[in-house]
Amino acid sequence: MTAMLDSHLQFAIAPPFTLETAMRKVRQAEDGWNSRNPDRVAMAYTEDSVWRNRSEFIVGRDQIRKFLAHKWERELEYRLVKALWGFKENRMAVRFQYEWHDDSGCWFRSYGNELWEFDERGLMQRREASINDVPILEADRRFFWAAPGPRPGDHPGIPDVE
Questions:
Q1: What is the pTM of this model?
Q2: How confident is the prediction for the chain on average, in pLDDT?
Q3: N or C, which terminus of the chain has less Cβ within 10 Å?
Q4: What CATH number does the domain containing 153 carry?
């Protein structure tokens, strides 16, 4: 029930965006992805949402759910931080960083940019993501909080962590 309530609140933020609502939408997306719950995250997208994620092309909630379930089976201890880069009407540009390790214990920081387009209800109908993975030492990690779960309000975000 909580996931459905969270999803409903996320949809309540609909275009056209203001600076305040755009920043809230980005933080809600970050919190959703940090839940590592493919069903919860998929509800933020239209039934026919179109993604480009790196070199993969994904269409629809069912493919989004499968993609995310597989992602979080591979990317262990995933922690994500997003930041608004810009917005206009029903579109946003977002930058992000996330850290994770593979099943052999090798750590990575993934850097990326996303372009988002929303329908009139606030559901994302298009997502284009460009992402680069950089191997890091575990000692070089930056993102520490109990996971899965949202980043605490006092934990640095991207503007504070470069």
A1: 0.91
A2: 93
A3: N
A4: 3.10.450.50
